[in-house]
Amino acid sequence: QVQLQESGPGLVKPSQTLSLTCTVSGGSITTNPYYWSWIRQPPGKGLEWIGYIHYSGSTYYSPSLKSRTSISRDTSKNQFTLQLSSVTPEDTAVYYCARENDQGHDYWGQGTQVTVSS
Question: What 3-state DSSP class applies to 69?
Fold first, then answer.
């Protein structure tokens, strides 16, 4: 059973960088054919896909967030990390990490609330 757990600060100040880590257990982030994704849900809105890191290490980001997004990984810890720079209150959301394959997202973390406020 694959499990994912998000961790990171719940409060970030405007213009700073949001940094979240997803720790994966029950499966390796280097296993073919999976993608390891970040997704968010702002209050009162739908899910927004942010980007992923492929099992090979390649990355792909949402065009609307690409200029501010970086996803990296630590294979020794079986973790992957999201960094979102120059945040504004519009980046306030519940952030999820998830495993993705060609059929969609099959395992999700429980989500973590991030609020952008001074």
Answer: strand
Q: Taking Cα atoms as reference points, which of 30, 43, 41, 48 lies closest to residue 99? A: 30
Confidence of residue 102 (pLDDT cuts 50, 70, 90): confident
Tell me how crowded residue 77 is: count the other CB atoms within 10 A of its CB: 12
**Alpha carbon distance 70, 35 (integer Å):** 15
Question: What is the rounded CA–CA span in Å between residue 40 and residue 6?
Answer: 12
Burial of 31 (0-12, 13-18, 19+ CB in 10 A): exposed
What does the pLDDT look like over 48-62, one tens digit per residue?
999 999 999 999 999
Burial class (CB in 10 A: 0-12, 13-18, 19+), 94: middle
Q: How far is Cα 56 from Cα 103, in angstroms, rounded to an integer?
A: 18
Residue 42 pLDDT: 97
